[in-house]
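Posted in: Protein Modeling Q&A

I'm a second-year student putting together a small comparison for a lab meeting, and my supervisor asked me to include a predicted structure for Integrase catalytic domain-containing protein. I've never done this before, so apologies if this is the wrong subforum. The sequence is pasted below exactly as I got it from our records. If anyone can share the structure token output, I'd also love a short note on what stands out.
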Amino acid sequence: MATDENINKLQRKRSTLRSKVTRLTGKLNGADGIDKAFDVELLEDTLQDLKLMNETIHDLLNDEDYERDTVDCEKYFDTAKLAIFNTKLKVSANINVSSSEFSPPSSINTSVKLPTIKINTFFGGIEEFPSFWERFNSCIDSNASLSLVDKHVFLRGYLEDGEAKRLVDGISVIGDTYETTKKLLEDKYGNKDRIIQSHLDYLENLKPVQDPSPMELNDLYIECNRRLKALNALGENTEAYGRILAPKIIRAFPTEISCRWIIYAKREKLAEGNITRLMQFLAEEVEGSVEAQKIRDTLFPDNILKSSVENFNIDSKLVSKNKNGPMAQPNGVIVLGLKTLQIT
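Accepted answer (user: helix_wrangler)
Welcome! Here is the predicted structure, written out as tokens:
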């Protein structure tokens, strides 16, 4: 009983520290960063106090409660460390900008500022992993100015809620576990054969487009072309798959486009499985369809046509209901808008 009472007292104290961590983390996430050095220092001190409190409580817990409590504790540290790291980056960026703005004219900076590379978050799609991993390695992993824990915080921050994030959720965000997290992700999503097969499966299982509008056709073409480019980037010769993939791709497009491709291939003496020429042909077809739609929309806006037709129908109904009214003319002539109709 004494132990339970001690645990309860410690947990109440820890609850106060956790509330403080949450409050300070929220302040940092909502700040520009330049005036938040004090909040960063205060949050780091609070995290240290919270760490000591956690260790004291864990010494009193059994194995099952310890594991459950550890997972809960890590959430506070992960969120807080990410906020601290992002704030420090903002502060550093602002300092660099200020230094360059107020530097003496005699000091000439000959270095070239490269454009910032955006790293999209990764949610667990195996086909997106190569692009994500290449950018992360280039911008973060190979950056010698970042510590291991900083790299780990960045990596975890780029994992969107989903399978990938759940895969590494149980790993503490510290420098010692950075390589473990990387290996888990690479083993799960970095298998080249699985990535290739995923792209091939998509192309082999294409279904005919249900709404063959220009935009839908454009989306279909872009997705097929993206998959083929990805296969080429992975070292696959897509022409070798031409006899299998070309029929699958062309059948997903409307029949009239398929017919034009067959005629075009015969006229140019091409194999129907020539996937490079097929994609060039589809690019021209889709572009023509999209441009034609733009012209139609410009010349005949739907709202104008609809409005004109509706007005015509309304006038027709009003007149037809009262043929002997003031709109009726002698000899069966009815004036309708600007036109005169002869009733026979």
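A couple of things worth pointing out for your meeting: The two ends are 106 Å apart (CA to CA). The CA atoms of residues 55 and 276 lie 62 Å apart.
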